[in-house]
Specification:
Elements (H helix, E strand, L loop, with lengths): L11 E5 L5 H10 L6 E5 L4 E8 L5 H4 L2 H16 L6 E4 L3 E4 L2 E10 L12 E8 L27 H22 L1 H9 L8 E6 L2 E10 L5 E3 L6 E3 L2 H5 L6
Parallel strand pairs: 1-2
Antiparallel strand pairs: 2-3, 3-7, 4-5, 5-6, 6-7, 8-9, 9-10, 10-11
Helix pairs in contact: 3-4, 3-5, 4-5
Length: 245
């Protein structure tokens, strides 16, 4: 056993003190010119926390689906670790559910891009999974908060989640590049129990309600069909994750 996760060689790992937040630190070093593939991680036992610095190759709008790519990777990581009877599903746009209980999710920050330079200089993806213990989230007040341990997934360490996520994230990035965003969205929609159901979303002060009918090319939520369809922008998840206070 080891106290340090083993990541694929494409990553450049940086260990963080347990009391520090990898996501916020990753944003700072990305703005300072950190290399793409830098992954910051925390050795906390109660939560799996990590953040990855990326270098977008497309415009801001076309880069936003990486949020779904990261959630797919996190979902695959948990599926590989939890018992087969445990359901791993998603909440739009960024929440991770275990047996319907919210255990964490992904978050994203994007560098501001000038109109003359539409491709952002950097992008940061963060992940958080509650391994054990209780947690509070004002944003998730209407959902059941859970942990892996509370849902019967004993013996899973935060390092196990980080290592497995790191491998799956590279695989999903490659699939996105080779097969396009449609393949990402098909796989993502297959993991959300909300599809086809009436839902309500409140993000960044905006509340909308309707039947979850799909997501757009950039990952926005579509409620309803035809001329009456409403769109909830994925941009709202950048300013504030739906699952975190």
């Amino acid at each position: 056993m080891t106290d340090r996760p083993s990541f694929p060689s494409l990553y450049q790992p940086i260990a963080m003190a347990n009391e520090l937040e990898p996501f916020e630190r990753a944003i700072r070093i990305a703005a300072e010119g950190a290399e793409p593939g830098t992954i910051l991680w925390s050795g906390r036992a109660d939560e799996a926390l990590a953040a990855v610095v990326l270098a977008p190759e497309q415009s801001r709008e076309r880069s936003l689906p990486v949020l779904q790519v990261a959630l797919l990777a996190l979902g695959d990581a948990l599926t590989a670790l939890v018992p087969p009877v445990v359901a791993v599903t998603f909440d739009w746009p960024d929440g991770l559910l275990i047996n319907g209980g919210l255990v964490g999710g992904v978050r994203m920050a994007v560098a501001p891009a000038a109109q003359s330079e539409p491709i952002p200089d950097w992008l940061v993806i963060g992940i958080e999974v509650r391994i054990r213990g209780s947690w509070e989230s004002e944003m998730a007040a209407e959902r059941r908060l859970a942990s892996l341990e509370a849902e019967g997934c004993d013996g899973i360490r935060s390092i196990d989640v980080l290592e497995t996520f790191g491998r799956h994230f590279l695989g999903w990035i490659e699939l996105w590049q080779e097969q396009g965003v449609e393949a990402v969205h098909r796989a993502w929609l297959a993991r959300t129990p909300a599809l086809g159901r009436r839902v309500r979303f409140e993000l960044a002060g905006h509340r909308k309600e309707g039947v979850f009918s799909g997501i757009t090319e950039s990952g926005d939520l579509r409620l309803g069909e035809g001329q009456g369809a409403q769109i909830v922008s994925i941009e709202s998840a950048i300013s504030q994750p739906s699952w975190a206070a």
